Fold each of these.
Amino acid sequence: GGYRDIINLMSSMERLAMDANALSGTLPPEIGNLLNLRYLSLPENEFTGRIPGNFGNLNKLRHLILRGNHLDGSIPESITLKENLPMLEQLDLSRQRDITGSMSATHEGIDGGLGGLLPSFSTMDNLVQLDLRYNKLQGPIPADFLQAVDSLIFEYAFLNANELTGTVTMDAIGDLPVDSVFLEDNKITDLEEDLCFEHRGGVVQAYGCSGILCPPGKYGPTIGRQESESSPCEECSSAQYWGTTSCFGGNGPEGIATPTKAPTL
């Protein structure tokens, strides 16, 4: 009932935005029938459950924004393929969980967070903005991750504050702009040496691997890497992984750092 019934009457709609409306329950699968949608924005609500697989039917969609709900389950393959969403430019599924404990889910006992393996999005050639931070995505970054995007216009991939593991390879992110991939606060155990060569330019030219992520034994307050001479990676004996942003019981101050913010969209 309610807004779900209204959705069924709006088949010609091109833009659907219901930001911060305290909407709850599961995401309406009826949205997957709105085949003219170009912009779908439902952030900062109280939606729970899984992302409907039929959102992959929205083949005119350019922007899909579900940030700041309490969604769980894996990311449907249907929304990661060019054959389904050939025009998609922005995908924001971030902040389904919040390690700062500030979201209402913490108080209501809702355990949100998209999980499963990180998809590769390998065919999504129009994607410019990808935000998956503050979830529970696992596994290594796929070797063909974002391999079809145009590196000249690609803006960012926020993967920080997940549960990604293993070695970050040149194949995975080497073709993306140096300053466009954010990986802090995962469980990354190594960076492939080629990622740190100064010919890649930017912060890597200036600071080597530390320009990507601070190494184990060090941490980068707030950002997990070195971006300037005034923000070096600092000693922290409790930092097990690359890209730690806070130091507990080690050489640095205790406390959870404020997460890096995405550009305002």
Amino acid sequence: MPPLAAQSSSAGLLLVVTALLTDCLNLASANKAHDVYRISPSAVHSRRGWHNRRNLPFISSSAASSLVGWEELVLNTRGGSTVEEETTASEVGEGTSDDIVPSDETDEETDEAEAQPRNLTFTATSPDDGSAEDPDGIPARWFDMKKGDREEANEAFETHLAWREEFNVDTMLERPHPKFDVCKQMAPHYFAGRDPHNNIIFVQRPAHVDFELMRMNNATIEDLLLHYVYVIQYCWNIMEPAPDAIMTNVLDMRGSSFRQMSNSEYIEFGKRFVSMMSANYPGRSYKTLIINAPTWINVLYKIFKPMLRESTRQKIIILKAGEEQDTALKFYLGDALPDDLLSAGDSKKDKKDMGTRYYVPVEEQEQCTPGPNSEVEFEMREFCKQQLALYNETMIEVNTI
């Protein structure tokens, strides 16, 4: 999804909207324009020549529900272990009675041991993604992104691997993420559940990206970008690990304005968000629904529409608030449709004062409903809290006005 190398506010806005409309989609990438803002090292490393750096902080201080309990999810999640590691684990299981935990061990110690995550390292390739059969070890999605061009697919994948090394992406879910709640409030986004085709539903409200709240919580754009990586890593490795899994994206444009979205901070975030997602998570969209779309969205869409592949155009649906939009949402999202997205309802949801919370996370699973407090969101937050506890850290409280 190549960003545009434009510097004016209007062109910058176009770039941001392009990013938001397609999110984890890919625009036609035959040109190299996306290299301008790519978040990656200056040199591309061999995917066989780098190793993971474990236990580093998530980021420097400067800078359709699974219905499975989060503890069980952590313990049973697919990791990046090798066949050799699995064999070793099997051999340990066949040990003698001397290997059995002493009977006088307390229940508390046993429970603590059982809560330890087994393997939360996830590499760039996975079983059945096509990399095992490819002579260069390239997953099929990368060929699709480059329309079958092996040279370009190999270059893009090598760059992706270098990016993963620079930001320690393979081990991101192992490490504590104390700013999880803060980032959730800075840029409202959530997994609402699953659509009728069992695809994950991801909702974003771009008009409510809150840079005032960011400053109040000593957070940065870098924090927010890496938070998105954390969320997407969780999505494609724990929540839905199938290599061909896709999602339905919903972009709620309620409250947006041309002037607001031409903000320089917003443009900077949009540029970096675009290049990071497009270069590293190709081919993951089923549909992208742009709802509550203002008139100027259609104008901008006509401008950048020629840059989209035909397959991408077919995935984008632009809707205006009203009965027709609500009918479409019910059709595409099914039972996972949050009330918050319907045209009728509380008028307060149209606005959000900068520096205030978008929502308050629930603490009990029984309180979950489709929306920001869906069961999927609850499980992901519990997972994050569990990792924080393993490092004797706690979630940072969100400072508001």
Amino acid sequence: CFDEFNRIPIEVLSVVATQVKTILDATIRFADPENRVGEYKTLPAGTPPLKVGDYDFFGQEIGLVPTCGFYITMNPGYAGRTELPENLKALFRSCAMIRPDLAMIMENMLMSEGFVTARPLAIKFNTLYALSADLLSKQAHYDWGLRAVKSVLRVAGKLKRAEPKVNEEAILMRALRDFNTPKIPANDIPVFLRLISDLFPGLELATNVDEVLKETAIKVSRKNGFQSEDVFIAKVVQFQELLDVRHSVMLLGPPGAGKSTIYQTLVACKNVDQPKPLCVYEAVNPKAVTSDELYGYMTLSKDWKDGCLSIVMRNMCKCWQPYTSAQTDQWVVLDGDIDAVWI
């Protein structure tokens, strides 16, 4: 199964089409027992789940089990994606997908997180995201789909378990507000907060802020010669909150907005009063190297050649120097312009 198949360059897709056609032709040929050799002639006709013979795959003899299959997933029309060539399209049967029923998914996930009034809360949740997609400005980084829903529900479940006696509506409202406001520009904030107040009338919970981290960020900022502006400190705290529920986080903004300073300040906060750094990072400019140099690639002799990210990730995972098992946070930072090729 090949995921995001149309990310592959068109030159490679043409080669893939030839390879797939070779395997399919062998499957058709060996479906007739008369075309098989030796002991394979006695096997049932068609496509039994057994090896039915060997065929030439670009200079290599490979055994064929005719029940093998090829499956690809793709999102047509996205930036950085390739249109599949016609000879490759002809080898696959297309299957269109429909949008998931978010309300039902929300209801089930809310129940699994311990919410008793899951159905009405799911309706409000779904309504908020549908209205947000329609009424807020169109931003490239906005995501009102299933990935964002699951992240919010994980946060809501965490809050529910921390405060089991608090009103469930208030808990979900806080999760929706606190998780989404960091990614919403200033001009959209009033609209979003008004939507929340309309869907959750009469509910008002203070933002759950990590006061210790906030105070530490203020001290670190002053020590580094920065002004400890409320907005900047809030972004440092929000960055940590997102890291708690996401494997990776994007800091978006124009040049000079303080993106690099935000993550560097959070690193410094984690290392305050520590004899050795507990949080380390490796910064890479993804636009300074090619895609192959960034991720790694397979050579013509079928040897793997490491890229920047694979080298750093392996060193971090295996705790090779300068990384150690005592470090609680190890980050790979891709500090540069975003495009559809490397992301």
Amino acid sequence: EVDATGWGRIPMRTADAVRSMVAAAKFEDRTLVLCFAGDWAQDGLAEIEEVVIEEGADGLGLQERITRRFTGRFLRPLPWQEQIEKWAAQNVGLAWDEELHASEVLELWRLSMPGTDPPARKDPRWNLIGFQQQDPATDFRGAGMLPLKELMVLAKSDTQHYCAMLARSKGDSPEHGYPFACGAINVVYMLLELLLLLPGKRSEATAPSKFEDNAGVGCPKDRFPNKRGTACRRALGMLLSHDSQAFSVLFAASMQVLDDEWMASSRSYLNFNQVLSRVLARVRATLR
């Protein structure tokens, strides 16, 4: 994979000269050059050339000769791509729905704090289950409402374990704990970013994650971080083809890793981003 901006052989057809990805594959005496329509494979192919390198007729040495060229937009999604796109359309980027999500937040409180009455919609007691704002609806931002759904699945599937993780997140004091619900929101955002599924963020797939720390605790930097995201997307897509709840399983495992890393750390909220970066490294390595 290379950045083909400015390459003379494969002209850029867009007025704004957006970056394109090019891949080349050699087969015996000829090479196929694939020019994608954007900066990753899912954008489709814009042009294909078959190139032969041979002795020039003018005796000036080896020269390239284009034997065939196909132009247009070619894209046939693979089964795993169809699975992950279908899942994303149903789950990613959903906004707060008062009629639906207000009752789910109350149910989450009952699962998290059994035997206690839920607080009013705006109440400082929401921080007892890890929301940072008095109105929990305001804590759901970039990740949409997917974190609420996944917290509900986790709390219902294993309430005892869920409540144990919630208790450990509180620590001995606020300085030695982390907001559990907001931690889950961060985990979902991290997973969507890892899988190149954040709305409007796919073209920025090569940008560093906000969960990568300056010490490089996260995944080692390489020239093509886009490949890491595509490998993780493929893994989840293949899992979804066998289990429609694969993301929920991934989320639950990631929360367990967060719990493990938190308990193994100094348990200071000041170091919470470093803990998240270690979670990211472990989850990414497992998916790849």
